Automatic annotation (TrEMBL):
<comment type="subunit">
    <text>Homodimer.</text>
</comment>
<keyword id="KW-0520">NAD</keyword>
<feature type="binding site">
    <location>
        <begin position="15"/>
        <end position="17"/>
    </location>
    <ligand>
        <name>FMN</name>
    </ligand>
</feature>
<dbReference type="InterPro" id="IPR023048">
    <property type="entry name" value="NADH:quinone_OxRdtase_FMN_depd"/>
</dbReference>
<keyword id="KW-0288">FMN</keyword>
<feature type="domain" description="Flavodoxin-like fold">
    <location>
        <begin position="1"/>
        <end position="196"/>
    </location>
</feature>
<protein>
    <recommendedName>
        <fullName>FMN dependent NADH:quinone oxidoreductase</fullName>
        <ecNumber>1.6.5.-</ecNumber>
        <ecNumber>1.7.1.17</ecNumber>
    </recommendedName>
</protein>
<dbReference type="GO" id="GO:0009055">
    <property type="term" value="F:electron transfer activity"/>
</dbReference>
<feature type="binding site">
    <location>
        <begin position="93"/>
        <end position="96"/>
    </location>
    <ligand>
        <name>FMN</name>
    </ligand>
</feature>
<feature type="binding site">
    <location>
        <position position="9"/>
    </location>
    <ligand>
        <name>FMN</name>
    </ligand>
</feature>
<dbReference type="GO" id="GO:0016652">
    <property type="term" value="F:oxidoreductase activity, acting on NAD(P)H as acceptor"/>
</dbReference>
<dbReference type="InterPro" id="IPR029039">
    <property type="entry name" value="Flavoprotein-like_sf"/>
</dbReference>
<dbReference type="InterPro" id="IPR050104">
    <property type="entry name" value="FMN-dep_NADH:Q_OxRdtase_AzoR1"/>
</dbReference>
<dbReference type="Pfam" id="PF02525">
    <property type="entry name" value="Flavodoxin_2"/>
</dbReference>
<dbReference type="GO" id="GO:0016655">
    <property type="term" value="F:oxidoreductase activity, acting on NAD(P)H, quinone or similar compound as acceptor"/>
</dbReference>
<comment type="function">
    <text>Quinone reductase that provides resistance to thiol-specific stress caused by electrophilic quinones.</text>
</comment>
<keyword id="KW-0560">Oxidoreductase</keyword>
Length: 202
Protein backbone atom coordinates (compact mmCIF):
# COMPACT_ATOMS: atom_id res chain seq x y z
CA UNK A 1 0.00 0.00 0.00
CA UNK A 2 1.30 3.46 -0.93
CA UNK A 3 0.80 6.75 0.91
CA UNK A 4 1.56 10.17 -0.60
CA UNK A 5 2.23 12.92 1.96
CA UNK A 6 2.04 16.54 0.81
CA UNK A 7 2.72 19.76 2.73
CA UNK A 8 1.98 23.27 1.49
CA UNK A 9 2.65 25.60 4.43
CA UNK A 10 5.43 28.16 4.01
CA UNK A 11 6.09 28.22 7.77
CA UNK A 12 8.36 25.20 7.99
CA UNK A 13 8.71 23.84 11.55
CA UNK A 14 6.34 26.54 12.87
CA UNK A 15 3.46 25.20 10.79
CA UNK A 16 0.46 23.64 12.51
CA UNK A 17 -0.77 21.89 9.36
CA UNK A 18 2.66 20.26 8.98
CA UNK A 19 2.57 19.00 12.56
CA UNK A 20 -0.86 17.50 12.08
CA UNK A 21 -0.20 15.96 8.66
CA UNK A 22 2.98 14.38 10.04
CA UNK A 23 1.04 12.96 12.99
CA UNK A 24 -1.53 11.48 10.61
CA UNK A 25 1.20 9.83 8.54
CA UNK A 26 2.89 8.48 11.69
CA UNK A 27 -0.40 6.98 12.84
CA UNK A 28 -0.99 5.26 9.49
CA UNK A 29 2.61 4.08 9.25
CA UNK A 30 2.39 2.49 12.70
CA UNK A 31 -0.93 0.81 11.98
CA UNK A 32 -0.16 -0.40 8.46
CA UNK A 33 2.75 -2.84 8.13
CA UNK A 34 4.66 -2.37 4.90
CA UNK A 35 3.15 1.03 4.13
CA UNK A 36 5.27 2.79 1.51
CA UNK A 37 5.41 6.54 2.16
CA UNK A 38 6.55 9.21 -0.30
CA UNK A 39 6.77 12.88 0.61
CA UNK A 40 6.57 16.09 -1.40
CA UNK A 41 7.00 19.57 0.06
CA UNK A 42 5.20 21.84 -2.36
CA UNK A 43 7.02 24.92 -1.04
CA UNK A 44 10.51 23.50 -1.63
CA UNK A 45 9.75 22.21 -5.12
CA UNK A 46 6.90 24.47 -6.26
CA UNK A 47 5.12 23.81 -9.49
CA UNK A 48 4.67 26.68 -11.93
CA UNK A 49 1.20 28.12 -12.26
CA UNK A 50 -0.58 27.27 -15.46
CA UNK A 51 -0.06 29.51 -18.47
CA UNK A 52 -1.48 29.67 -21.96
CA UNK A 53 1.43 27.52 -23.14
CA UNK A 54 0.50 24.84 -20.60
CA UNK A 55 -3.08 24.80 -21.78
CA UNK A 56 -2.05 24.66 -25.43
CA UNK A 57 0.23 21.69 -24.72
CA UNK A 58 -2.63 20.02 -22.87
CA UNK A 59 -4.76 20.38 -26.00
CA UNK A 60 -2.19 18.62 -28.13
CA UNK A 61 -0.01 21.48 -29.38
CA UNK A 62 3.72 20.84 -29.55
CA UNK A 63 5.04 21.95 -26.14
CA UNK A 64 7.24 25.00 -25.98
CA UNK A 65 10.84 24.04 -25.25
CA UNK A 66 10.82 26.27 -22.18
CA UNK A 67 8.13 24.06 -20.61
CA UNK A 68 9.93 20.75 -20.99
CA UNK A 69 11.11 20.45 -17.38
CA UNK A 70 7.89 21.83 -15.95
CA UNK A 71 5.70 19.48 -17.92
CA UNK A 72 7.84 16.59 -16.71
CA UNK A 73 7.37 17.79 -13.12
CA UNK A 74 3.63 18.00 -13.67
CA UNK A 75 3.54 14.47 -15.03
CA UNK A 76 5.56 13.28 -12.04
CA UNK A 77 3.09 14.67 -9.49
CA UNK A 78 0.16 13.24 -11.45
CA UNK A 79 1.84 9.83 -11.50
CA UNK A 80 2.51 10.06 -7.74
CA UNK A 81 -1.12 10.84 -7.08
CA UNK A 82 -2.44 8.09 -9.33
CA UNK A 83 -0.13 5.52 -7.70
CA UNK A 84 -1.16 6.40 -4.13
CA UNK A 85 -3.76 4.49 -2.16
CA UNK A 86 -3.79 7.13 0.58
CA UNK A 87 -3.07 10.86 0.27
CA UNK A 88 -2.36 13.03 3.34
CA UNK A 89 -2.29 16.78 2.75
CA UNK A 90 -1.30 19.64 5.02
CA UNK A 91 -3.46 22.60 3.96
CA UNK A 92 -3.32 25.86 5.92
CA UNK A 93 -5.74 28.68 5.21
CA UNK A 94 -4.08 31.68 3.56
CA UNK A 95 -6.39 34.62 2.97
CA UNK A 96 -9.46 32.40 3.14
CA UNK A 97 -8.28 29.66 0.77
CA UNK A 98 -5.48 27.19 0.07
CA UNK A 99 -1.87 28.26 -0.54
CA UNK A 100 -1.09 28.94 -4.17
CA UNK A 101 1.48 26.12 -4.08
CA UNK A 102 -1.30 23.64 -3.30
CA UNK A 103 -3.52 25.15 -5.97
CA UNK A 104 -0.73 24.65 -8.52
CA UNK A 105 -0.56 20.97 -7.51
CA UNK A 106 -4.33 20.61 -7.85
CA UNK A 107 -4.11 22.07 -11.35
CA UNK A 108 -1.74 19.22 -12.28
CA UNK A 109 -3.90 16.40 -10.93
CA UNK A 110 -7.27 17.54 -12.31
CA UNK A 111 -6.65 16.12 -15.76
CA UNK A 112 -9.41 14.99 -18.09
CA UNK A 113 -8.99 11.34 -18.99
CA UNK A 114 -6.79 10.70 -15.96
CA UNK A 115 -8.72 11.70 -12.84
CA UNK A 116 -12.09 12.57 -14.40
CA UNK A 117 -13.93 12.32 -17.67
CA UNK A 118 -16.96 13.84 -19.34
CA UNK A 119 -19.70 11.48 -20.45
CA UNK A 120 -23.36 11.41 -21.37
CA UNK A 121 -24.30 11.70 -17.69
CA UNK A 122 -21.88 14.55 -17.00
CA UNK A 123 -18.60 14.39 -15.11
CA UNK A 124 -17.37 11.04 -13.83
CA UNK A 125 -14.56 10.92 -11.27
CA UNK A 126 -11.85 8.35 -11.92
CA UNK A 127 -9.92 8.50 -8.63
CA UNK A 128 -12.57 7.25 -6.24
CA UNK A 129 -10.46 4.36 -4.97
CA UNK A 130 -8.27 6.62 -2.81
CA UNK A 131 -8.44 7.67 0.82
CA UNK A 132 -7.70 11.37 1.28
CA UNK A 133 -6.94 12.92 4.68
CA UNK A 134 -6.49 16.69 4.93
CA UNK A 135 -4.99 18.53 7.88
CA UNK A 136 -6.32 22.09 7.94
CA UNK A 137 -5.14 24.98 10.08
CA UNK A 138 -7.14 28.21 10.27
CA UNK A 139 -6.43 31.38 12.19
CA UNK A 140 -10.06 31.97 13.16
CA UNK A 141 -13.27 30.03 13.60
CA UNK A 142 -15.17 29.33 10.39
CA UNK A 143 -17.80 26.84 11.52
CA UNK A 144 -21.25 26.93 9.89
CA UNK A 145 -22.68 28.79 12.88
CA UNK A 146 -20.11 31.61 12.75
CA UNK A 147 -20.52 35.03 11.07
CA UNK A 148 -17.45 34.43 8.87
CA UNK A 149 -18.48 30.99 7.63
CA UNK A 150 -19.01 32.33 4.07
CA UNK A 151 -15.28 33.14 3.96
CA UNK A 152 -14.22 29.51 4.39
CA UNK A 153 -12.72 28.34 1.09
CA UNK A 154 -10.34 25.61 2.22
CA UNK A 155 -12.45 22.68 3.38
CA UNK A 156 -15.35 23.62 1.11
CA UNK A 157 -13.03 23.97 -1.90
CA UNK A 158 -11.08 20.76 -1.26
CA UNK A 159 -14.24 18.77 -0.57
CA UNK A 160 -15.53 19.87 -4.00
CA UNK A 161 -12.20 19.26 -5.78
CA UNK A 162 -11.83 15.72 -4.53
CA UNK A 163 -15.50 14.96 -5.00
CA UNK A 164 -15.14 16.06 -8.62
CA UNK A 165 -12.59 13.32 -9.22
CA UNK A 166 -14.59 10.69 -7.39
CA UNK A 167 -13.36 10.97 -3.79
CA UNK A 168 -16.59 11.84 -2.04
CA UNK A 169 -15.60 11.31 1.58
CA UNK A 170 -12.28 13.06 2.24
CA UNK A 171 -11.38 13.13 5.94
CA UNK A 172 -10.64 16.52 7.52
CA UNK A 173 -8.71 17.22 10.68
CA UNK A 174 -8.99 20.89 11.65
CA UNK A 175 -7.04 23.11 13.99
CA UNK A 176 -9.10 26.29 14.25
CA UNK A 177 -8.50 29.57 16.03
CA UNK A 178 -4.72 29.29 16.10
CA UNK A 179 -4.30 33.07 15.74
CA UNK A 180 -6.92 34.00 18.32
CA UNK A 181 -4.52 33.59 21.23
CA UNK A 182 -1.98 31.21 22.79
CA UNK A 183 -4.59 29.23 24.72
CA UNK A 184 -6.75 28.81 21.64
CA UNK A 185 -3.73 27.70 19.61
CA UNK A 186 -2.62 25.17 22.22
CA UNK A 187 -6.11 23.70 22.49
CA UNK A 188 -6.54 23.55 18.70
CA UNK A 189 -3.21 21.85 18.11
CA UNK A 190 -3.77 19.33 20.89
CA UNK A 191 -7.22 18.46 19.55
CA UNK A 192 -5.98 18.06 15.99
CA UNK A 193 -3.04 15.90 17.03
CA UNK A 194 -5.36 13.68 19.03
CA UNK A 195 -7.66 13.34 16.02
CA UNK A 196 -4.67 12.40 13.88
CA UNK A 197 -3.62 9.80 16.42
CA UNK A 198 -7.13 8.34 16.45
CA UNK A 199 -7.38 7.89 12.67
CA UNK A 200 -8.77 4.60 11.54
CA UNK A 201 -6.09 2.24 10.33
CA UNK A 202 -5.55 1.96 6.60
Amino acid sequence: MKLLHLDSSVLGPHSVSRQVSAAAVDRLRQSTPGLEVSYRDLTLTPLAHLSGLHLAAGQGAAPDASLRDDLAAGQAVLDEFLAADIVVIGAPMYNFTVPSQLKAWIDRILVAGKTFKYGAQGVEGLAGNKRVIIAISRGGYYGPDTPIAPGEHVETYLRWVFGFIGIHNPEFISADGIQVGPDHREKAVAGALKAAGDLQAA
